[in-house]
OB domain-containing protein (Chloropicon primus), 193 residues
Amino acid sequence: LSLSLSLFLSLLTLSGVDDLQAQGRSTAMIDAPHWTVTGRVTRRREHGKKLLFFDVTVDRELSLPLLASSAESSPKRDRSGDARCCSTATVRNTMPTFEGREVPTFQVVHSMRCYPEGAMDLKRFKCLTKLVMPKAVVRVKGKFGRTKTQELSLFADDLQIVRVQPDPSAVVKMLCNTWCASDDDDDGGGGAG
């Protein structure tokens, strides 16, 4: 599942440095380069209704299992020679740097304020942010800066959810429903007998 959310960095509409500081963003972000990285979400925190913070860990290479493969491709073999059920795609990252050092783990700031006026409503924003759970894989484009508390953060202006990690409670519910349905099938239609 690939879901693209176009987030536009509000720097384009800011009137000056005072606005940056009022939003808690470092003025160094003006000259900071854009980074695009793919990584795994390790932690998420909501702050109010319109702001999501989540931590991302970036590896130089990230292997993702493919849910479907082309009919022409043959299954890959592991060391024992057994065929594996699915193939993988490898994402190669350039490790982001900030102030001269590599940053493999960092916080991402995803804000509803980054969307153009009228492009996103609160209900849709909340639904989309619920997909950003630990173990999900995301691709983020943005600029590094510091928050009000001076925490290094990537302020997202584009976010793609590459792989969603299912909510454990949803998985349990699905398994319970499947189990109950299979019991009904074993009883021959569910009548008392």
